[in-house]
């Protein structure tokens, strides 16, 4: 417990720092492998679509005595040539058939009820017309596109377009990986799965927004000094928020895990399981991408800005000039480019320095004053 | 930043106001005599949900919202006719992308499902006989004493205030035009069941003019009882296989007040029809269709130029004009009620205007004492009934009550387990702050539950399994807001602030993040809600609602509570149990005056340990 806390502290102060941004190639490679697998799955195996998408009928019989064989024989005697019969949960049997008319389904229902010794009201029926699937697919895609556009607009206003693009890349990454896992494992895709996948969008963005908020804070007015490059400041932000990201993800995943557990354990299949499974995979992917993909991509985009390039040059120049100092601060901190600046004894208390936990002792009042005055000084410099 | 005392007072006030809101919601929720539980969706209590999608109109044109409304109206009529309580018919979307969703609770019979998607037809059928819909409402002794078998019954007993007549447009009914425009019937009007239908002895000879020439053997028994229900003499002769004794018997026994009598349904235009008026006030024995609805080229409600109130104008196609001229010519020679034709939509009589002259030229006016709404409704029936929307059953999902119960149990269990897991995690990780988070979660849960109940009662919001899942998922999203805030507070403490300052500064930074992140969630929910169908919608609604609740709780409960706690001397001591002890967080130079020595000691101890 306290170890977690102190790790969190050291991450926060930059004592311990993971170079997420600098080692981005490694993480990109990991993601690339996953994405490749996902695409192979998607285009090779394809998705295992539920009857809601391809049309057909599904009967759910609640009975603790009936067996799969009985149900299959019964369905066949009612005229279904190749029913797919599975046992679901402890006391349910599911029979899937191609599209049926109402009369046909009625006949099968009656047959099942008499053969399996249940009342008709114990049989759930779902009939889906062949064209309905393409309709809901169309609507889901419409929703997805509208959502992506809306999110990019919002993030562009709230942050800026480069961060919005990075968030979009992370989102698409999560979606593809989730869909790919579905294709590879052959999990059934139902409308509930689609709900789950669409909800992932919100989740994945939640994490990304939290991280980007810190990045934004750390990089505010960064060009007015030459202490750290954008990437370094962003990497520090990542380190500072990584504990928070993990916490929010764990907290978000716990209820999802509960749904998954109960859904599979008690009901066997259906809305709860489909929803929770998609959410579980997607949220896990979302946590990964908000740390390893979103921010590194954002840094790459930002570093292309002329002012950020200039900053990087200035920082490099300053570093080579103060090598001795850097060496002195030594060991653990040397691994963290963001933290090397911490040696600064100067009293100008830049936002970054204070965020780095620099030993500048100021009273709360004085501090908020410096914070308030910061934007003004920035403006002057520009 | 406000002065501490001010801040303190404001926090207290915010909490008090929130408490008041929750309490009044609770009163509303648990108001005696109302349901105290959320309205459950079909997948939680058993029932059948059917999604119908329009596939086009019979003429191939685009589907208008008015047409869709008409289709929904017809479906509602059919479902209600089966007497299923609490069934609902709703639409989502518009035009070609619309879906009609029919929810039928409980165990369903297949007959209802089969009746849903059949296309409704409109046609004009000459009336052979007419009677009261049920045996009850005839207290008035009726005057039609005559009615000897053969000739027309002479007692027209006009009740002009309720009659509907159909006339050529050139000769408004006010002018009379020599033709006896006597009182026809407006079956929709139940207020005056008095006399007209009592005249219900048709004239077998006169009806000869309509297509299948009657063999006119069994003229009605000449007993001439007056009440139309008991009036066997109100029956037309048996004419053909289509109009046999079975139909006559059906007409005699037909009681339109019974469940199922007014459900409507498709009819064969070539056959005789025994049916009720739409409101069940009258029953009719109708001939095969003389003019089909597809021959109507337009219909509109308007004010009579002669000042006679609202009327409905309609025009026919070329073929329709000829057919209509023939049938009105025949009908005008007959005596009531056989001088009427029934406007039959989906097997139910919408209106039965009487005819006093042949209407040639393809335009007609239906007059009567219509209100504006009645006239418009009738015009809509004529307009859209003639261009029926074909519907396709896209999806039928029927959940047995047993399975529904299972799903409800599973959903509640998953919710309880999810909440427990989050609570345990929060308390272990954040200690006292975790308790604040748990309290916040409970407050959020209480508000959400109250809103579910109230929305169910007021707006018909139903909680489906997907909705339950959305609420459970929302536990995580809500708790995330607290995590963001608490981590911010910890960050501020690490930077060396005292607890009080950290609580305030942390909030200022965290609230922006919380708002941005919740906005994205809310955006997702809104877009999902408007672009999806069925269960996805339920999920999106719950998610959106809980996101709003989350923001409200974070701002009006968690924040003020933390603010008060931070000002509590025992809490601000920063001991380990608070979850905010500076030494545990590794703060470098805590400025909390009271704790400085203690933390320095602790810090050195911590340094030794590590």
From TrEMBL, chain A:
Start and end residues of each Protein export membrane protein SecD/SecF C-terminal domain: 117-303
GO biological process, one term: intracellular protein transport
Topology of this chain in the membrane: Multi-pass membrane protein
Biased composition, class Basic residues, residue ranges: 373-382
Main location group: membrane
Compartments (UniProt record): Cell membrane
Gene3D superfamilies: Multidrug efflux transporter AcrB transmembrane domain
Spans traversing the lipid bilayer: 27-44, 140-159, 166-185, 191-212, 250-269, 275-299
A molecular function (GO) term: protein-transporting ATPase activity
Stored Pfam families: Sec_GG, SecD_SecF_C
GO terms for cellular component: plasma membrane
The entry's keywords: Cell membrane, Membrane, Protein transport, Translocation, Transmembrane, Transmembrane helix, Transport
Region named Disordered: 310-382
Name assigned to this protein: Protein translocase subunit SecF
Taxonomic lineage: unclassified sequences, metagenomes, ecological metagenomes
From TrEMBL, chain B:
Record localization: Cell membrane
Domain SecDF P1 head subdomain: 281-389
GO CC list: plasma membrane
Ranges that cross the membrane: 12-31, 408-428, 435-455, 461-486, 514-532, 538-557
Protein export membrane protein SecD/SecF C-terminal domain segment(s): 390-564
Biased composition (Low complexity): 143-154, 190-232, 593-610
Membrane topology type: Multi-pass membrane protein
Span list, region Disordered: 132-236, 584-610
InterPro entries given in the database record: SecD (IPR005791), SecD/SecF_arch_bac (IPR022813), SecD_1st (IPR048631), SecD_SecF_C (IPR048634), SecD_SecF_C_bact (IPR055344), SecDF_P1_head (IPR054384)
Primary location: membrane
Domain Protein translocase subunit SecDF P1: 68-127
GO molecular-function terms, A-Z: protein-transporting ATPase activity
SUPFAM superfamilies: Multidrug efflux transporter AcrB transmembrane domain
GO terms of biological process kind: intracellular protein transport
UniProt key word Hydrolase: no
Pfam families (UniProt xref): SecD_1st, SecD_SecF_C, SecDF_P1_head
Keywords noted in UniProt: Cell membrane, Membrane, Protein transport, Translocation, Transmembrane, Transmembrane helix, Transport
HAMAP family found in the cross-reference section: SecD_B (MF_01463_B)
Name of the protein in its database record: Unannotated protein
Record lineage: unclassified sequences, metagenomes, ecological metagenomes
